[in-house]
Amino acid sequence: MDKLQHIFERNRVWASKVKEEQSDFFLKLSEQQAPEYLWIGCADSRVPANQIINLPPGEVFVHRNIANVVVHTDLNCLSVIQYAVDVLKVKHIIVCGHYGCGGIKAALDSCEHGLIDNWLRHIKDVNRFHADKFKGLNTQEKEDLLCELNVVEQVTNVCNSTIVQRAWKRGDELSVHGWVYGIHDGILKDMDVCISSPEELYAKIDSASADY
Ligand code: CO
Asked: What structural domains and CATH numbers belong to the chain?
């Protein structure tokens, strides 16, 4: 703790500033959380969920991993989605990638990165599914395109999860969104793949794939 004393100091400054602005802020939050949004984003330190969408603690339930991947056998991610959908009753699930993503870059190069290469296989698969769209592009264009296609793919995975399928079946109001964040300008880009039903999943994802 000694070595990180400055972090504790920052924490106390932050907590007292929040209390100054709203004296019962922490009391209210300690009683319950009722976020409307589940954010599935990259672990990258430059892409902090709450700050990007300018929402305070209590408003966003968050899951982050390398390159915002949703794998059907990842109990960690699935547990977060299940709790968010079934218990917290979030109305929106946002998959947010970002340009300049190290995971995406690593998936496109042919170097060895160790254990993480097993995780990056999921992104290499996205590249393989859309191999024809990458022909003739330079490195930057390939990275940007894979960031976008990866988001669309992970939106599909969220929608196809038993959790979201069951939520739609019982009539829950639940939409899944795909966004890409620009580290260079702080702006979110909507990939326009908002899906709120199984019917939309087939209609929108098919047409989105065709557009790229
Ligand atoms: Co990243």
From this structure: 35-209 (3.40.1050.10)
